[in-house]
Amino acid sequence: MRQSLNQVGIHIGDPFTVVRGAHLGGPMIIQINSAQIALGRGMAEKIIVKLSAANLPVQH
Predict the structure, then answer these.
(1) pTM of the model
(2) Which CATH architecture has domain 2-52?
């Protein structure tokens, strides 16, 4: 799977933004390195995401 992701420009540690979630079984669209990439549900479920401190909710 890592090789498949590398071929479309997704590498370990790359920051990305979810543009559209995989609602109703459709693909998840992510913005990464100025490109939008569609990930199928099966592949998206296998990716482990670590949130950066900048993306954590603000505690009041």
Answers:
(1) 0.70
(2) Roll (2.30)
